[in-house]
Amino acid sequence: MTKPVLFVTNHAPPFRVGAFAQLHEREEVTFALVGGDVRHGGGTTEDTGAFPVLRVREREVGALAASGRYRAVVAGLSGRLALPSAYAGARRARVPFVLWATIWEHPRTAAHALSYLPLRHLYRHADTIVTYGPHVSAYVRSKGARQAVVVAPQSVDNAYWNGQSDAIRRADFQAAFVGRMTREKGLQVLIQAWRTSGLSALSAALVLVGGGPIRARAVATGAVLPEGPCSPGDVRNFYAGSDVVVLPSVPTRDFREPWGLVVNEAFNQGVPVIATDAVGAVAGGLVRHERTGLVVPAGDADALAAALRRMHGEPALRARLGAAAREAVRAYTHDAWAAGMSSALAGVGASRC
């Protein structure tokens, strides 16, 4: 009987459940969830019934990985102890170790400085590495990775986000921000750009869908329509009712947008985006300037205002970009993500197939 694969990560959030289920179906995987902070939206789903789940403490990961019950160990960058413990356990068990790398710039805080050298060691000594996209692949190679690096593309449930919607529209032209209202998401820059764009005087609306620590400040400006947190169904309806979705993310000392799944969701509704060059979906190739959206420099409110005015004034451009966006996102499926993981396991002789 084939042993399962151990996959160590922090949570199984709703947007990952489908991908994890696809991987389990392909490879028979047990997911060890260590908990911890979440820098993305969507909440957590610990028990899904779609795949085996173990809730473990970080200090228990090493013994679990070394137990001999697994044919390979996969680990993401979660926690302070979970990743190095998973690696050490895999080495003790003499089974392949697969690193799931998800950043394209190491955080620059004092705490993260302590993890830089250990993580660089893993980039160089993992048996294989799986990344979000070519931008992360380039980063890990710049840190010394010489082994195979495989891309498992970021994915959402395309069937759901591409589904029939009841469009929610607040104005003749609607721009939408969807996500956590935090500093790294660039909301202050977006509000400044919206004020200077002059669009609010032209039957246009900027809707903010989501919550977060700076939501009250955004509400106080009076320049936007704060919709607050919404159900997935209403989020999809806001996409359907919008002419453009904006991802104004900015890099901070402890965060650089790894991807931005809002892009995948909006593209499934045929809605183009304006995104900054600090968004992983831009660096990774899903958002292409003048092809599936518009790209502006991070933190540049004037450039963002100009892009908003352009989207408002050129409906043919919106239609062309939106059609190309819907086509481009078709390749970013849960099955494609699982296939990338399977390819990595096959490369180290640990695939079930």
Identify the notable features of this structure and list them briefly.
Rossmann fold; 353 residues; six-stranded parallel sheet; alpha/beta
Q: Which H/E pattern describes the elements?
A: EHEEHEHEHEHEHEHEHEHEHEHEHHH
| Total number of beta strands | 13
Mean pLDDT figure: 93
From the 3D coordinates, which CATH architecture of the largest domain would you assign?
A: 3-Layer(aba) Sandwich
- Percentage of residues assigned to helices: 25-40%
Name the beta content range.
Answer: 15-25%
The CATH topology of the largest domain comes to Rossmann fold
Task: Kindly report how far apart the N and C termini lie.
Answer: 13 Å
Going by CATH, the homologous superfamily of the largest domain would be: Glycogen Phosphorylase B
Order of neighbouring strands in the sheet with most strands: 3-2-1-4-5-6-7
Find the structural class using helix and strand composition: alpha/beta
Largest sheet: number of strands, sense, barrel closure: 7 strands, parallel
Radius of gyration: 21 Å
Count of spatially separate domains = 2
* Broad shape: elongated
For the record, the CATH class of the largest domain is Alpha Beta
- List low-confidence stretches: none
Number of helix segments?
14
Q: What do these coordinates show?
A:
- With 353 residues, the protein is α/β, with parallel strands linked by helices.
- The protein has two domains: 5-155 and 333-347, Glycogen Phosphorylase B (Rossmann fold, 3-Layer(aba) Sandwich), CATH 3.40.50; 161-331, Glycogen Phosphorylase B (Rossmann fold, 3-Layer(aba) Sandwich).
- It has 14 helices and 13 strands.
- It has helices at 14-27, 61-65, 82-93, 110-125, 134-142, 158-161, 187-197, 215-221, 232-241, 261-268, 280-283, 301-313, 315-328, 334-347; strands at 5-9, 29-33, 53-55, 72-75, 97-101, 128-131, 149-151, 173-178, 204-209, 225-228, 244-247, 273-276, 293-296.
- A seven-stranded parallel beta sheet has the order 3-2-1-4-5-6-7, sandwiched between helices. The chain has a six-stranded parallel beta sheet with strand order 10-9-8-11-12-13, with helices on both faces.
- Helix 3 links the parallel strand 4 and strand 5.
- Helix 1 (14-27) packs across helix 14 (334-347) and helix 7 packs across helix 12.
- The two termini are 13 Å apart.
